[in-house]
Amino acid sequence: MRSFEGQFSDNRPIRRSPQEKKRLLAELKETLANLKPQSSPSLRTTLVARIRELEADIASSPPPREPAPPRTPRR
Length: 75
Hints:
Elements: H1 18-33, H2 41-60
Helix pairs in contact: 1-2
């Protein structure tokens, strides 16, 4: 089956909100901590690289904008 333009199967990155990125980072750290000693070294290096990438992305993202103060009507 062929994909159409804009379909999720297109080769493009998934956009995530900062909250989703923080949740994913926590999950990856937990997964790394729970790996058994016999797990492959390449899996560990991949997880560590993904964690570093997410940490850098979170650190470089601009802070969330504060909502504008409510306007008072002029008379």
